[in-house]
Amino acid sequence: MENTDIVKENKWLKYKEKGIEGFFFLNGILAVFILLGIFFLLIREGYPTFKEVSIVEFLTSTRWNPTSYSQSGYGIVSMVVSTLAVTIGSLLFSVPVGIAAAAYLAEIAGRKEREILKPVIEILASIPSVVIGFLGIVLVGPAIARFFNISNGLNVINGSILLGIMAIPTIVSISEDAISSVPDKYKQASLALGTNRWHTLIKVTIPAALSGITAAVMLGMGRAIGETMAVLMATGNATAFPKGIFTSIRTLTATIAIELGEVPYNTTHYHSLFAIGAVLFMMTFLVNLVSDIVLHKYGEGE
Amino acid sequence: MENLEKKIIVNDLDFYYGDFQALENISLEVPVNKVTAFIGPSGCGKSTFLRTLNRMNDLIAGTKVDGEVLIDSENIYHECVDVVNLRKRIGMVFQDPNPFPKSIYENVAYGPKAHGIKDKDKLDQIVEKSLRQAALWDEVKDRLDKSAMGISGGQQQRLCIARALSVNPDVLLMDEPTSALDPIATAKIEDLIEDLKKEYTIVIVTHSMQQAARISDYTAFFLMGDLIEHSLTQNIFEKPENKKTEDYITGRFG
């Protein structure tokens, strides 16, 4: 009697277990479905572009002028280069600052300083990008114009600085976690060999935290590529090919944001904006893929 | 012991963690090219004392040292002493094998590089010499560029010894170097210590009395922050002078 009871209960438990497992599995793969859905949407809406525009022109021409009366142009090269320019520019400044700040917080700052600074840096991440855009228009842009004695401060360098400011909290926060979690025994071993703190930080601690720092930089970079509002406001909104760091530009994201609201539905212009979205998607995907490969390579043996 | 050349002379050393006094009035001499073992129950201050010899305790906030530690007749707690240089002369091997997450080669080359040696041939030589001294060369010579995290615990500890030797110290401090290792790996390290004392003065903290008896020439017994007895290892184990030493040796406590 008792035996059969136990057997019955076991069966029920087994179904319950399976059910719970299935529920979590569905949640787990939900992200995959959403991702595929977005990708499918971008491809489906973007694809009709290429009925009128050759894919070669789309990917190699620098002329973006879909609403021209005489000869419309659908080349995205200028915008891709603009996006890359502000992204790389922002990293040039946010990566060193971010890692240095993270190293300070993790290794040098006392507990009190850390407890004040870390939340403050994290609040920086929560400032809406529109507000950062304001900052670019009224403060950073004019300052750049004055400092370099140029007429217009809304340009690549302005966008880079703003994106850098937005990427810094991500880079600091994740890098700090990575540096803090480097075991103390590595530092002790280094110091016991007669090296100073600075040398230990540069040669042992930071390299040991490199996988985490790489992840931090990639996340910061992902944010910079995808950021729309601030770069739209602060880079001058010019679709020409960027000729230097003082050129006004327009990024891929800004183009979508500006034009999608006014474009007639189901025209080539409309579809081309989705095609730009697909390009953006692939760029961020590539960044993530590369960072994954880098992480695996450096993570070897850990 | 009176006739031997002294490498380290400690006079009236007190050590504090904040308000807690961890070492009281320690005076002790370490002869050159011998193995001196520190034994005693957990928390007796033997590791703390070891770490006063290369000033690793400086890294812990709120510690204080009184008294003097002379190494080659130089007080290492004198305010003009460069701690970085001191630690170059006094190598240290830790309880847990702690190779850097770098290649085997880079682990050994790290110290010399830090001290300004850039020449690749010179570095190669140092790496080979240090690994040979640590009896590890034959086991790793074909995979110097592989991660040090991929070798066994015993090999890692010998790598750490090679790393400590790479900067050419005179003294090697070892803080329970075999407590995380299996008996075979332990035996290898003990053989190695026997070889190394020809060139280095070795101070080893150990939990195992048998180990102290096997490898050391001199043994110091610590209890509750006091140095109870310090003598030839044979004397300590065969005819200890202090009752507390005898009780510990015979396993009555600790």
Secondary structure: elements and pairs:
The complex is a heterodimer of chains A (302) and B (254).
Chain A: H1 2-46, H2 49-52, H3 55-60, E1 64-65, E2 73-74, H4 77-108, H5 111-125, H6 129-148, H7 156-180, H8 184-192, H9 197-208, H10 210-226, H11 229-234, H12 252-260, H13 268-298
Antiparallel strand pairs in A: 1-2
Helix pairs in contact in A: 1-13, 4-7, 4-10, 5-7, 6-7, 7-10, 8-9, 10-13, 12-13
Chain B: E1 6-17, E2 20-31, E3 35-39, H1 46-52, E4 63-71, E5 74-75, H2 83-89, E6 90-93, H3 104-114, H4 120-133, H5 137-140, H6 153-165, E7 171-175, H7 183-196, E8 201-205, H8 209-215, E9 218-223, E10 226-232, H9 233-238, H10 243-249
Helix pairs in contact in B: 3-4, 3-6, 4-6, 6-7
Please provide a written account of the structure.
The complex is a heterodimer of chains A (302) and B (254). By secondary structure, chain A is an all-alpha fold. Chain A has 2 domains: 2-46; 64-298, MetI-like (MetI-like fold, Orthogonal Bundle). Chain A is built from 13 helices and 2 strands; from the N terminus they run αααββαααααααααα. Chain A has a two-stranded antiparallel sheet with strand order 1-2. Chain A is flat, with a radius of gyration of 25 Å. The model of chain A has no long low-confidence stretch (mean pLDDT 90). By secondary structure, chain B is an alpha/beta fold. Chain B has a single domain, classed as P-loop containing nucleotide triphosphate hydrolases (Rossmann fold), CATH 3.40.50. Chain B contains 10 helices and 10 strands. Chain B has helices at 46-52, 83-89, 104-114, 120-133, 137-140, 153-165, 183-196, 209-215, 233-238, 243-249; strands spanning 6-17, 20-31, 35-39, 63-71, 74-75, 90-93, 171-175, 201-205, 218-223, 226-232. A 6-stranded mixed β-sheet of chain B has the order 6-7-8-3-9-10, sandwiched between helices. A 4-stranded antiparallel β-sheet of chain B has the order 2-1-4-5, covered by helices on one side. In chain B, helix 3 (104-114) crosses helix 4 (120-133), helix 3 packs parallel to helix 6 and helix 4 (120-133) crosses helix 6. The chains are: A mainly alpha (302), B alpha/beta (254). The interface between A and B is medium-sized, with 20 and 32 residues.
